[in-house]
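Revision sheet: C-alpha cells.
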Amino acid sequence: MKLIVNGRPLETVATDLAGLLGELGYEGNWYATALNSEFVPREERKRTELREGDRIEILTPRQGG
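Predicted:
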C-alpha cells in the first residue's frame, strides 16, 4: 500500500497505524500521530485502519529555543 508519511511517499504492508509505527521502528509513547490531519490518540492506533493514499504525520518533541 502506498502512503504519505511526514510528507514523503512510503510503501508498506501495514494495515493499521500501530503496525506502520512498528514497521518504521517507532517505540515508546513520546510521539503524536495524525491521520489525514486528524489527531489519533495512542490507544486508538491499533484500531486505526490505513487506506491507500492516506497521509500520516508522526511528530516527536524537540528541545531548544
